[in-house]
Every structure is written in C-alpha cells, then in structure tokens.
Write a structure and sequence with these properties.
Chain A: Belongs to the CENP-N/CHL4 family. Chain A: Pfam families: CENP-N. Chain A: It comes from Poecilia formosa. Chain A: It is found in: Chromosome, Centromere; Nucleus. The complex is a heterodimer of chains A (336) and B (361). In chain A, the strands form two sheets. Chain A has a six-stranded antiparallel beta sheet with strand order 2-3-4-5-1-6, with helices on both faces. In chain A, strands 8-7-9 form a three-stranded mixed beta sheet, with no helix packed on it. In chain A, 32% of the residues are buried. In chain A, β4 (144-154) and β5 (159-163) form a beta hairpin. Chain A contains twelve helices and nine strands. Chain A has helices at 3-15, 18-28, 33-37, 45-58, 63-76, 100-114, 170-180, 196-203, 227-250, 275-278, 295-305, 314-322; strands at 83-91, 118-124, 129-136, 144-154, 159-163, 183-193, 260-267, 284-291, 326-330. Helix content of chain A is 41%, strand content 21%. Chain A is globular. Chain A starts with a helix and ends in a 6-residue tail after the last strand. Chain A has three domains: 3-77, no CATH class; 83-204, S-adenosylmethionine decarboxylase, CATH 3.60.90; 235-330, Ubiquitin-like (UB roll) (Roll). Chain B is of the alpha+beta class and 361 residues long. Chain B folds into two domains: 51-109 and 120-217; 222-278 and 290-332, no CATH class. Helix content of chain B is 32%, strand content 24%. Chain B has nine helices and 15 strands. Chain B has helices spanning 21-29, 66-72, 93-109, 175-180, 197-211, 222-235, 264-276, 293-311, 344-357; strands at residues 51-53, 76-82, 85-86, 120-130, 142-151, 161-169, 185-186, 190-195, 215-217, 243-250, 256-263, 290-292, 319-325, 328-331, 335-338. In chain B, the strands form three sheets. In chain B, strands 2, 4, 5, 6, 8, 9, 10, 11, 13, 14 and 15 form an eleven-stranded antiparallel beta sheet that branches. In chain B, strands 1-12 form a two-stranded antiparallel ribbon. The chains are: A alpha+beta (336), B alpha+beta (361). The A-B interface holds A 263, 265, 267, 269-271, 273-274, 276-277, 280, 282, 284-295, 297-299, 301-302, 305-309, 312-313, 315-316, 329 and B 2, 4-5, 17-18, 21, 24, 250-263, 266, 269-270, 272-274, 276-277, 302, 305-307, 309-314, 317-318. β8 of chain A pairs antiparallel with β11 (256-263) of chain B.
C-alpha cells in the first residue's frame, strides 16, 4: 500500500465518526469478514486506524479501494460541506432517454477530453441518484484524491448538486455534465446549503404539498350565535385561514430542512412618513439573511401565527415554490 | 388581538400588524413608560437619558496610554454591574493583588476546579490603574485586574500568559448619584471580564467579600441596542462604519434568526432624514445637538418598515439580539466589543449609565 493510500485512509478515518466506522467498513466489503472481526471498535480511533492500515496493507489495497470507502461514507452521510445546485436547460430531443450506462460513458469521455489526469468514479445509489466522484489532476500531476469533488444527479431531472468544486474546474465539470446529459446549457440554480437531502427534497417536491381549495371547510349552517361566540368564531376563522395559507405556501408536515435564505435587496426606500428617503432615486442597499435549523418550518410558523402577514409575500413563497435560497431583488425585476 | 405573540421588553403597547400611522403614534405616546425609569424609589431618580450627545471621535491616546487602550479594544467583554465598593483604596492595589492571589490559590486547594486549559501552576494577580478613562471629577479611576499563570510544565524563561482580565470603571457617571454616596464608597459600577468563567466567579467572590458589594449580569437591553445602532450610524459621518448589521430572533418554532445588514451610507441617509424631520433641530451644528430617543425609534421604524415592505414580517414581534458595525459589536447577553478607541469613551459612558440604572439604591 503506497504512502498516498495510507495518508488517504488516515485522513478518511479522522472524518468518519466512531459510531459509523463499523457499518461503513461492512458496506465496503474489501476486507474479509475475518479481518473485520479482528478489529476492536472499543479502542481509541487512533488505535483502530493503525490496525486498519495494517489490515489494508496485508490485503494489498490501493488508492482506488480507499476512494471507494470514502465514496460510501459520503453517500451515506451527504449532509456535510456546502452543496450548490445547478440546473440543466434546453434538453435535446433525446435527453429524456439518456440512461445510466450511456451517461457514465459519455461523462467520463467528455471530462477526460477536457482535462487529462482526472479520476472519475460513478455509482448509482439506491434512491436513483447518480453519484460522481472526481479527483482532479492536470497535465503534470496525478489526481488529487484529498480534495475530490462530489456530484449528485438524478437522471431525467434537470438538477445537479455539486460539492467542493474549485472555480478553476467548474467550467470543465459543467460542460461535461451538459454534454453527457444531452442538454445545451447549465446555470446556477441559486440554491445552496449544507443538507443535500433538504435541497433535494425541496426541489423534487418530496414533502407534503397542500393544494389550495376553493371551499376549505364545509358550508356553514345558518346559526344563531350570540355576540361572544361570534368573536371567538371570527378569531378562529382568522387563525384557520392563516394556518391554511401557511400550509398552502410552505407545505404540510415535515418540511425539508433548509437552513438559510439570503436576499440582496437593491430597491428604493418607500415610506409615506419619510418623504426625504422616498424621494431618493438611488436604491437602499441592504441584505437580509434568514437562518434556522429548519427555515421552511420557521417561516410556516411565522405565517400561521401572524408574525408574517398572509398571504405570504412572493419573496418568501419563492423559496419553496422556485426551490431557491439566494435572491437579488431590484425594483425592475421583483423576483430576479 | 393575538394572545400568542410575545412582546418585546420595551414596548408596552399592543401592536397592530399593519404598518400604519396609528401604529407609530401609539409607540410615541407610550414612550414615557418605556424610558427605563428605575423601579425603586431612589434618593436620586436615575433614568435612562432620553437625550444624548452624539459620540464624537476622540483621540484619547493623549489621555490614556496606548498600551492600555490596546488591552481594551478589539476584545469581547462580558458585562456585569457592581454596587459601590466599601473602603476601596486606589493606593492599596498591591495589597489587593496579593490577597486575591492567595484567595485563588486557597480556593484551588479546596478542590475548586478552575479550568484554564491544562494544569496551571500558580496564578499571579496584578491590579493596576488605567489612568485617563475617568471623564469627570466624580468618576473614580478605572482599575484593571489581570490574572496570569504559567502552565505546569512550562520552562523558566517562558513568559506567564494572561488567562483572565477584568476591569472596573465609571465613565461619565451621573454626578448627582456619585455625589450622593456616603464618603467611604467608591462607585465603579461597570465590570468587564474576559476569560474562564471559573476565574470570573472567584474574582467576583473575592471582591464581594472584601468590599461588601454585589454583582449582577448587565444585559444590554433593546433600548440600549437601538441606541447603539443609531449612535454608530451617526458616527459614520466621521468614521467609516462599513455596514450596520442587526440580528433579530423571531419567536417561532424552530427559532428564526434574521440578519439585516444595511449599507452604511444608506443607513446614514436614513438616520439624517429622521433627524431632519425634528423641526426644532438646527441644520448646522448637527453633532453638537442632542439626539433624542424618539429619533432613534423613528430610525429603527424606518428600517423595520423597509423590511416589512418586502417580507411582510413584523420584526418588532421578535427581539433584537445583536448590533454590530466596524466600530464594534453589542449583544443582548451583555457582550460588548469596541473596535476603535475613538469611540470608547462614548460607548462606555452609555454602558456606565446602564450599570448605574441597576443599582438597588
């Protein structure tokens, strides 16, 4: 086992939390059951790492095998680092019939044409996602396995999620993706965050949608309510309306755990009580960032409790409806 | 009206969700109640100043030694208030240092774990005077306390590291109050500390025993945070504050944090426009004239209404947690950082005032 493989393994072991070690190694399957049993997982991580390195050396494992292990770990624990979303546009006629083998071949060949010395691994995950791991080298050096880029794409959808991509390699990767999926363009989708699962669920609408209905409740019967009951009824109605509108905008039940949304505002200041500012021609430059452990649930609660007036403003409803969390708002284009 | 919404501490008035004239008017009429009058009947009625002079950029390097200033700026301090110290003498500082050292050593022996990161050998305490910060004749001079220590296995020539520092000060304290105190009391109501919590407790404990005083946390309340937002924006006329950043939290589940950052030039224009609308103020010498809290309120409302126009979310339903700019940052939980010595005096005068408001008598 060469030094690079050892180094890679040691680095990887530092990343994998102790609780997940055993299951990840089992899934990897490159060590025989016997060898795996010989590892004592109650020891310190440092000790386990040393023993594991020894076992891998015995089995003559290489960098290729270690990168497999890394890929298994990242695939099972995707909510780390920062994921950026891209959207493929202008599909060609046969785009929808691109299937896995074809995509794999095409992607690998396009990317190696664009850059020498890249190492590409493609795997299909159980949930139909295609995972790609790219280690970048260049004409002079070997692929750098320590800083690999990960890409997730669901075939037949226009969305691509990318992690750890340098600006130098960005155009190459995007071009390879566009060509291999038979599209003509790709653009940034203005949706990023740490939790890949949240970004994916948001875009693929994999949460409970609430569709607006014209008659939300059964028609009321004629009632002879006295004045106090009428007040309670009005309050209850108002509350029910807010809850309904909040649900229609954001969804029902558990929502994807998006963690932040950023708005760059470059609009004019308009306030009837402040003439001086309202008469200004220049925009009032400011930015607003919303953050929460689950942003969509927080916003939904704002709407249902009245902190956010309903109907919810398009700026906020664009987050779930358009599946993005980065916006630049100017006066000309209300939802850039 | 919604019963489930939380009220911000200083607004005693029921709010309507839509931003209309009556909403603003009702805040102003209730302002008297929200001025932070101290609750206990006092010999001297202390209240939060409704009117305040705008902070001027002061070059205090002539009054205060640069190395002292370096200790104070660009550091985040935890604020507490302390009641007047009985029989504290600025001339006895060496004695106090010895006594505090001994106290810390004794407490350590009793098994009180003082976690300063690794085993520590001995703690060496020093008390010194930071001359020049006291502004008026009634202000006692600021006292700095530092605790230094050497790790257990350090070499002889390694210098001891400062593991904890704190300072007691009174900057532009209310002269009426200071003069009303009995002779033997020294009022240094503002206590700033930085370092391990264990050491903070020990130092406070020793001060409490020795000078018969009481400590309490000095939270920077909504009013003070709003003052700082306005004052720092005002400073942009002299010194570039780069951005005005405010962080609110809204009481929803899970809690929502809103970081609202305004370009400093635009913030200043908004601030100026709220000041101009006060008819009595003369245009010329803006900086000599007092700033009224009602102007601060109008400024904040301007910011919040711009926010509301876009998001239809009422920020006043939440709580302002933090205000920061290139000049420093202030947090609700009583943490302050001053990045520029030019405005040190002004900001700490404001904080001294807050500390004095907490005095029980």
């Amino acid at each position: 086992m060469d030094n690079l493989a050892k180094h890679l393994l040691q680095r990887l072991m530092r990343r994998i939390p102790a609780s997940m070690l055993q299951s990840t190694l089992d899934k990897w399957g490159r060590l025989t059951a016997e060898k795996r049993k010989s590892l004592d997982f109650t020891q310190s991580k440092l000790t386990i790492t040393q023993e594991l390195v020894a076992l891998c050396e015995e089995s003559e494992l290489t960098v290729k095998h270690i990168t497999e292990l890394e890929m298994i770990y990242v695939t099972e624990n995707p909510n780390q680092g920062m994921w950026h979303t891209f959207q493929l546009l202008d599909p060609e006629d046969d785009a929808h019939s691109v299937e896995l083998m074809q995509f794999k071949e095409q992607f690998k060949s396009h990317l190696s044409e664009l850059k020498r010395n890249v190492s590409v691994k493609i795997k299909k995950h159980t949930d139909e996602a295609v995972w790609i791991r790219v280690a970048w080298g260049d004409g002079l050096s070997r692929p750098n396995h320590l800083k690999a880029t990960y890409v997730v794409h669901y075939l037949q959808t226009p969305y691509v999620f990318v992690n750890a991509l340098s600006s130098k390699n960005k155009p190459l990767l995007l071009q390879a993706l566009t060509l291999s999926t038979k599209h003509q363009q790709i653009k940034a989708a203005n949706l990023s965050g740490q939790k890949l699962t949240a970004l994916r669920d948001l875009l693929m609408r994999q949460y409970q949608q609430v569709f607006p209905t014209k008659y939300p409740s059964p028609l009321p019967e004629s009632d002879q309510s006295i004045s106090k009951l009428r007040i309670e009824k009005v309050q209850a109605e108002a509350s029910a309306n807010r809850h309904r509108m909040a649900g229609e905008t954001f969804g029902d039940g558990m929502l994807p755990a998006l963690q932040s949304a950023f708005f760059q505002l470059e609009t004019k200041f308009k306030d009837p009580t402040n003439e001086a500012m309202t008469q200004r021609d220049e925009p009032f430059i400011c930015s607003v960032k919303f953050s929460s452990s689950n942003l969509l649930e927080s916003l939904r609660h704002c709407a249902s409790s009245g902190i956010a007036s309903t109907p919810v403003t398009p700026l906020l409803s664009s987050i779930p409806l358009k599946g993005r969390n980065y916006f630049v708002i100017t006066d000309n284009v209300p939802n850039a | 009206m919604e019963g489930s919404r939380e009220r911000t501490p200083h607004s005693g008035v029921v709010k309507r969700r839509s931003k209309s004239q009556s909403y603003r008017r009702s805040i102003r009429t209730c302002f008297g109640v929200a001025s932070g009058l101290s609750l206990t009947p006092a010999l001297t009625a202390r209240r939060m100043n409704i009117c305040r002079k705008a902070p001027r950029s002061q070059n205090i390097t002539e009054k205060v030694k640069p190395e002292h200033l370096a200790l104070l700026v660009k550091t985040e301090w935890q604020l507490s208030y302390v009641t007047p110290l009985y029989q504290f003498r600025h001339t006895q500082l060496k004695t106090y240092a010895r006594q505090l050292s001994a106290f810390i050593a004794a407490e350590k022996q009793q098994g009180l774990a003082v976690e300063v990161g690794g085993l520590q050998n001995t703690f060496k305490v020093s008390f010194s005077v930071l001359q020049g910060l006291a502004e008026t004749n009634d202000d006692p001079e600021t006292v700095l306390i530092q605790v230094q220590s050497k790790p257990m296995f350090a070499r002889q020539e390694d210098p001891p590291k400062t593991v904890w520092s704190g300072w007691l000060s009174c900057i532009n304290g209310n002269p009426e109050y200071l003069q009303s105190l009995p002779k033997d009391f020294t009022c240094l109501p503002l206590f700033c500390s930085k370092g391990a919590e264990g050491l903070s407790s020990l130092v406070k404990s020793w001060l409490q025993r020795t000078f018969d005083c009481c400590f309490g946390p000095l939270d920077i309340n909504q009013t003070t945070l709003q003052w700082l937002a306005a004052l720092w924006t005002n400073c942009h006329m002299e010194t570039n504050i780069q951005k005005l950043k405010m962080i609110w939290t809204l009481p929803v589940v899970p809690p929502l944090q809103v970081t609202y950052t305004v370009d400093s030039d635009d913030a200043l224009e908004l601030w100026r426009s709220t000041r101009e609308s006060s008819a009595e103020k003369s245009r010329g010498a803006e900086d000599e004239v007092c700033i009224d809290f009602s102007e601060v309120t109008r400024f904040m409302q301007g910011l919040m209404s711009h926010f509301y126009r876009h998001f239809r979310v009422d920020l006043s339903a939440g709580e302002l947690n933090q205000v920061s700019s290139a000049l420093g940052s202030a947090k609700l939980n009583g943490k302050i950082k001053i990045s520029s010595s030019r405005y040190l005096i002004s900001i700490f005068s404001l904080l001294t005032e807050c500390a004095l408001l907490k005095m029980p008598i």
